[in-house]
Amino acid sequence: MKEVAKNVYQIALFPRSGINCYVIDDILVDAGIKSSANKILNAIKHSDITKHVLTHAHPDHQGASSIVCTKRNIPLLTSVIEKEHAESGKVIYDYPNNRHWIAKFQQRYWAGSGHKVSHLLREGDEVGSFTVIETPGHSKGHISLFREKDGVLIVGDTLVNMNLLTTISGLHEPPGLFTTDRIENRKSIHKLFNLKPKILCFGHGSVLYDKGEFETFMAKL
Q: Of the candidates 62, 68, 89, 128, which lies 20 to 30 Å from 34 by C-alpha distance?
């Protein structure tokens, strides 16, 4: 684990931070793909993790959730809308084209088993030292997490900080193939920008210590 802010740790599950999960306080946020389980469990083996939160139940975020929750005997928390997918393990069904071969591949090889959700999260709820921000669009029930005192933002996939094909760093909207409602997601990007975050932690891409990059991106958006 790499400490990226006070009590915030990044677990890079793929090279070049292609897929990330995070530990905030005593909470695991997201869990990569199914085969990420051992890497996550090894990373947190000396940590007192008490719960697991999903920003959204897509295959590259809930893949190892059931394994980690079962092995560590910790509860799973999601937004109200993501609960159904997290519990069923059917996690591509709000993709715009869930019959696309990439979607089918992700469901078969990346998605994990469903797992019972113990608690539902809504706008304004506290998750450790962070606050839940509802950011729908990439998925219907997507959430982000924000710590106002130092501006740390767990973005999820509302934005990505890499080109997912070339892996070159830079702010982008998430790919349309996996985004339920691109217009709604843009509204959520604006919502996050208005929080004035200082440190942005993405599901895909390296952590951004913002020096104006977000504002430049918004001007182009």
A: 128
What is d(CA 63, CA 191) in angstroms, rounded to the nearest whole number? 28
CA atoms within 13 A on the CB side of 103: 17
Q: Which residues contact 167 (CB under 8 A, 6 or more apart)?
A: 15, 16, 18
The pTM (predicted TM-score) of the whole model is 0.95
CATH class of the structural domain 2-220: alpha beta
The beta strands (E) that lie in 2-129 are given as 2-5, 8-12, 20-24, 27-29, 51-53, 76-79, 117-121, 126-127
Which residue's entry shows tokens 């071969």?
101
Domain boundaries, given as residue ranges, for the chain? 2-220
Q: What is the pLDDT of residues 183-210, one digit of tens each?
A: 999 999 999 999 999 999 999 999 999 9
